[in-house]
Design goal:
With 277 residues, the chain is mostly beta strands. It has 1 helix and 16 strands.
Length: 277
Amino acid sequence: MRTETDGSYNATAIYAYGADYIDAVAGRVTPTDEHFFTQDALYNVTAAVERSSENVVERYAYSAYGAPTILDADYALDSTADDGLSDIGNEHLFTGRRTDPETGLQLNRYRYYHASLGRWVSRDPIGYSGGGMNLFRYVDGMPANATDPGGLRPVPHPLLYSVPCGRVSVSYNISSLRIKKVQGWCFGQVPDRVQTKLIESLIDKQIGSNIPKSGSYSCELGGHCCNLKHFYVRKTIKFNFDLTFPNVGLNCVVNVSGSFSIRIRGESGNCQDCPCD
């Protein structure tokens, strides 16, 4: 629930939200009317339903990057569409976020989005940590596949990838594996550097025989739609753990650190058997 008030702290509107997404606006209550909202898979508000009559009173269409068009209930262009404003005062449109009626900009918490230009009006506040090299680009140029409710980084929508048709490739690599600390004597009283080399050799052999340090896999995904687009995800995870060797009779504890990198790539595949829209 969210309440809007005037300067005297009187409630002017109360909004209700669904539990599945932060901007899943479900309805609005004002002193003069009550409306329910319908949304699509990207949480774009697509229609407003008047509670008293249970009829659709207004509909909304969007460009690829979210520029809204106000429609009447019968899908005809709104008679006052040239002002670009909702007849019922609805300001929650593209991805459920509020659009400022004076500037036409959409506030996604940490920064403003310009739907007509398809880009942010300011740099990403977390810089390149947002995952892209272009700090003004909206959801990596894939507005039909993701949202960005905070204005920080794209959020892929799981519904759009639930039954894709195509190929997904996964590759990983374990690197920077090194010994940080040894407690006890693993190989008798030998110099630390010699002991470390022997332990590294043992760990390398153990990991190499059970878990390859690198590898790649791919698989075909079949489904009833063809909406798997080209995407690329790269993630590096640093690890640190203690390792013991009781099975080979070594009385010591070794602290090991390193990093695990994984890359996931998706490509549209042969979708001839999928009934595409």
